[in-house]
Amino acid sequence: MAERPEPADSELVLAVVTHDDREAFAQLVRRHQSLVRATLRRLAKGDHGLADDLAQETFLLAWRNLRAFRFDARFSTWLYRIAFNAWLTDARKRREVLLDDLENAPAADEHAPALPAAERIDLERALATLSDGERAAISACYYADLTHEEAAEATGMPLGTVKTHILRAKAKLRARLGEEPR
Amino acid sequence: MIETLRDPIDQRLRDDAGRSVADDGFTVRVLLALPAPRTRRPWLRYALVISSAALGCALAWLLAPGGISLAQGFVDLARQQAQTPSALSALGVALAMGVAAVVLVAEEN
User: Fold this and answer.
1) First to last CA, chain B
2) What is B19-32 written as a DSSP string?
3) Which residue of A69, B15, B95, B106 has the fewest CB atoms within a 10 Å radius of its CB?
4) Out of A56, A123, A143, closest to residue B33 by CB
5) Measuring CA to CA, which residue among B76, B95, B94, B96 is closest to residue B86?
6) Which pLDDT score is estimated for B69?
7) Which chain B residues touch A142 with a CB distance below 8 Å?
8) CB burial class (10 A; 0-12, 13-18, 19+) of residue A45?
9) What's the ipTM?
10) Cα separation of A19 and A10, whole Å?
11) Rounded to whole angstroms, how far apart are CA atoms A100 and A134?
12) Which residue would you say has higher pLDDT here, A61 or B98?
């Protein structure tokens, strides 16, 4: 007997909105929790506890606002926007967040010699040393798999700023992790 | 694009992003934190609309000048005598109930 194909996100969203279907929502959470939590872990500088709290808040907000979801965007993009705003609100409660501060973010010294192996730090710690804007751009484009345009729209940063953040972030990571382009 | 593929940092980020985070009870925690399910009582809305329309009709009939009988009105309508005060009252009541029914059907759709 042929297996029934997995329902699309849009079908699950419709089931939640029209029938208050919690099993459909559980399927949506199971399907997207990894992306949302991984993205928030990067945004939260590797603080997994905080990231999971924000991920839970993200899904609760999604549940509450599901009627506002427009089917012209991917559900994952919509979720990323909620997650990003949850992180931004939380971060602003703790400190000032500068997303498009290109002037003051120190540029990486690409000509600096690579660190010896013992001093190299892992990717998670290296990402935590990036500026807020750089981390937001990297998390959107790599972890949430958004295009530069979608990332700009979701984070509210100009497209050029997103691209600059990505380039600078990668240069910094290269310098910190000691990896040169082949 | 070729440059992107050769960049080890790019590859490392993609590999890291591709690693899935184990659920470890996360979905259950989210479901437990959802607000309690709504108690669906569709009959309540019907009852409220219909009974308020009926109440309005009853008040209008009570406050109308004497000598008007709803039953007589329906009899008049059946006899195709729509010009009598009773027939007009019956027509009004039927209209009010009809509008209430249309409102309910429109809301349902």
Assistant:
1) 51
2) SPPP-TTHHHHHHH
3) B106
4) A56
5) B76
6) 77
7) 13-14, 16-17
8) middle
9) 0.80
10) 14
11) 9
12) A61
Tokens 């935590």 belong to residue: A128
CA distance A144 to A162: 14
List of residues 6+ apart from A163 with CB closer than 8 A: A148
Distance from C-alpha of B75 to C-alpha of A67, rounded to nearest angstrom: 50
Q: Indicate yes or no: CB of B20 within 8 angstroms of CB of A34.
A: yes
Query: In Å, how far are A45, A127, A167, A175 from A179, measured between CA atoms?
Result: 21, 14, 15, 7
- Using the Cβ of A45 and the Cβ atoms of chain B, whether some distance falls under 8 Å is answered with no
Helix axes B85-108, B42-63, angle to 10 degrees: 160
Contact between residue B21 and residue A38 where contact means Cβ atoms under 8 Å apart? yes
Residues A82 and A80: their CA atoms lie apart, in Å, by 5
Q: Which of A64, A74, A72, A70 is nearest to A140 (CA)?
A: A74
Q: Per residue in A81-136, pLDDT tens?
A: 999 999 999 988 887 666 666 555 555 544 444 444 444 458 888 999 999 999 99
For the record, the structure tokens of A83 come out as: 């997650």
Q: CA-based diameter of chain B, in Å?
A: 96
Give the pLDDT band of residue B5 (cuts 50, 70, 90): low
Instruction: Answer yes or no: do A177 and B3 touch at CB < 8 A.
Output: no
Distance from CA of B44 to the nearest CA of A (A): 18
For residues B83 and B86, what is the distance between their CA atoms, to the nearest angstrom? 8
The pTM is what? 0.69
pLDDT in tens, A19-43: 889 999 999 999 999 999 999 999 9
Q: Which of A30, A142, A177 sits opposite B14 (nearest CB)?
A: A142
